[in-house]
Design goal:
Helices cover about 30% and strands about 30% of the residues. It has about 425 residues and is an alpha+beta fold. It has a five-stranded mixed sheet. A hairpin with a 7-residue loop joins strand 2 and strand 3. The longest helix has 24 residues. The N and C termini lie far apart (about 60 Å). The N terminus is likely disordered.
Length: about 425
Amino acid sequence: MAPAPHRGMKRHPWGAMILWAASVIWTDNNGRRGVGRARTARPAGGGSVRGWCYVNLEEARLKVRALREQIEYHNYRYYVLDEPVISDAEYDRLMRELQTLEREFPELVTPDSPTQRVGGEPRPGFTTVRHLTPMLSLANAFDEESLRDFDRRVRELVGGEPVEYVVEPKIDGLAVSLYYENGLLVWGATRGDGEVGEDITPNLKTIRSIPLRLRASGVTRVEVRGEAYMPKAAFAELNAAREEAGEPPFANPRNAAAGSLRQLDPRVTASRQLNIYVYGLGLVEGRTPATHADALAWLREAGFRVNPGHRICRSVEEVLACCREWEGKRFDLPYVIDGMVIKVNSLDQQRRLGATLKSPRWAVAFKFPPEQAVTVIEDIIVRVGRTGVLTPTALFRPVRLAGTTVSRATLHNEDLIREKDVR
């Protein structure tokens, strides 16, 4: 249920409700500042009276707090639950009111304010941050026998104990880590080499499904791991715009997402319609879940998007059945997946299983085979970019790949055309 709004309205002595319509800044002889709002009051005897209603610093502080709670609640409803309860126009009105108050009372601006999601000037470059716990890569399994071998090793290493697995879609995007202290987002970074990643906090803040303040309490410090991605529809729209501008299209949504998050200007990132699914925790101080499924439930409670397709399986045969099911519907999804991730559910068993230098022993990525199609090239055109770069593009009979219709492909350069004997 939405938090009760702080109306910020005052009543005229005769009891009529004042309606705000415009704003004005004022400063009195003592240097006190406020925001004035045009008002129209209707006395009981009829007619109307126009005047000004002023907001001092303390009133502005209360109003700002209430507006932020409302806006973040509606962000959560829209971007996480996909269940909006107000119109876009009403949401924009709330945001404009918050922007006005923060502009006139800059001391009230905080890093977790919804107005701070999109920054101003581009940055000169990226700095680095050290992950508090390593972001390891997953070992791959390319066939069912390899997955059975993984299950066999896990059961042997835990001494024959019962083992549950959590199976989740493997989003084809960019792995990121989000670090929170006392409920506030401090930084967000790429995986990098697993120990050190690039600080892309301003760009990640443009993804509105990432909470700037956690909705759940119980932890003092926490690392949240997730996969930022570009939906298929946004990818098609972006490539169409790039081709129209004479720029080379991105090869796939994963490259587009990675390129978008490494922009020095977060305003460019904000225009790319990125989203995220979170899938786990790194460092946790405070409330500690017992299982991976418990961790996913807490992440949902904290305000994150968790893929609803994850499933608990109690045998490797259940795991395989789940993988086959998702492979059959992978191209019907609005985002790209390239496999399934299988994790031991018990966090105690995860700790005992440990990791190699590169990957955890308690998880594996089951990779789907890439989809291929045969078609006929009908023409090759050369596009000239704004910098004068020539990009050859093959036009061919449309084919269905990864759930979309493909009718062209960038050939990159003349050497590739000659090597592949494209004609």
